[in-house]
Amino acid sequence: MDKDLITGSLIDIVSWVVEIAILLWFFSDFHNKAKKQDSAPSRLAGMFPLAFLLLIYMTPLNAAVSVFSFENLIIQILRMLLHLFPVMCWLVINKECAPKVAAYLSAIFTAIYLTAQNLRMIMMTYGTVTPPNETTGMGYIVGLLLVAASELILAAVTKSMLKPERIDTIDRQRSVMMVLVLFLMVYFKWILTAVRELNLGGNRTAMISFSLVTSIGIYLVVLLYDYSRLLLKEKEEAEHDMTVLQYEIRSAKREMQAAGDIRRLYHDVKNHLLAIQSMAGSEGEINDYLNELLPKFEGYETQVKTGNQTVDAILSEKIQISYSDRIRFNICLDLTGLKNIRPVDFVTIFGNAADNAIEALKNTKVVDEDRYVFIKSSAFANNVVIRFQNRFAGKIEMRGGAPVTTKKDAEMHGLGISSIRNAVSRYGGTVSVKADNDSKLFTLTVMLPTGEQITREEE
């Protein structure tokens, strides 16, 4: 077998491997949260579509004899599609993208590839690197390295600005624009191929400059267009979050004020009823009626002092609404060290944790003496550890660190765990869940760092 042929084939395979490596890195942050963890054989099988990219490197750059022919243009279009479709299939299979999103993302990566290849064509035209049919010299290898470096730089710029993992919907306008961009890039590649093969004299530099500037310019227009859409989307999300936060703060303030007024009112009414009872004596219908009425006021005068007004209001409300179900709270909290936590996140953590515990204790199989919600805090290495505990009936199955509902009347702990995890993760904290089916004790532990030095993900 011809030595040059073997050398050329090996270099083509290496170029294909480099292309795969850049592709995997470009989409490394793209994860489908609903997708289950695949096994190694499944991931390997999902890579199969990318094997077809090798055909691009194993076929000539321009296969037609007449470089300005329609046949050669068709060949360049087919080479572009041969790059686009394997990447699209890989995104659909491995990343579980919607077909339209996968097509758009693969078109972006193909545009990066075409831009790098157009740069290579210009280098070959001016003799900077060796043409592809001469695979024995260092010039050819240098050309491949320059193309790989160009593609990597373009991919890095695109990834930092465009953030492919944020693209989840594609409208008709973006689809049409990307199709036009790809075909224009192929057209300019066709021109550059012809310019390299033909002797055009003084027109060569003009045609190369026009093709290069236009090709790169079109790509930059697409990049900046998508980048502006991403900034607009982030701005809308930030405005929405700010609106929700302001609403939550106003709502929490109103609830705290109302809760304080109600507690004072019930406290005063209870004192008046006690005075009436003492005047009525120990016998008679009035005394019997008051003995029945007074216990109804016990849950409303409970005051919670944790060092955080939002949490005080939340827990006071939970105590009141759960009193009729004979559910008691045992609270020992000191949250003064958590000044960095937003009120909306306190609502998420304590609201969901308390609701889950109350829901579990409403089960008629839980006896009265076990109907307690324990909420305790402790300090540990610049962290505040908050522990929520309650009894439950039945059996809780754990999967992936969260409870799984297995019966119609099973515990409802799993409903708010994910929301709690999301809120705690913003501050670099941790959440652990434990369900002891022997002792029927459910424990939710939240650890939050203290101090103002924490950098939240949302900021």
List the helices and strands and how they pair.
Blueprint: H1 3-26, H2 40-46, H3 54-58, H4 70-94, H5 99-125, H6 138-162, H7 172-197, H8 203-280, H9 285-293, H10 309-322, E1 328-332, H11 343-361, E2 372-379, E3 383-391, E4 397-399, E5 402-404, H12 414-425, E6 430-436, E7 441-449
Parallel strand pairs: 1-2
Antiparallel strand pairs: 2-3, 3-7, 4-5, 6-7
Question: What's the average pLDDT?
Answer: 75
Strand order of the largest sheet: 1-2-3-7-6
Beta-strand percentage range: 5-15%
Distance between the termini: 61 Å
Structurally, the number of domains stands at 2
How big is the Rg? 34 Å
Uncertain residue ranges: 128-136, 406-414, 452-459
How many DSSP-defined strands? 7
Sheet of most strands:
5 strands, mixed
Structural class label: alpha+beta
**N-to-C SSE string, H for helix and E for strand:** HHHHHHHHHHEHEEEEHEE
Spatial shape:
elongated
Q: DSSP helix count?
A: 12
Could you estimate the helical fraction of the residues in percent?
A: 55-70%
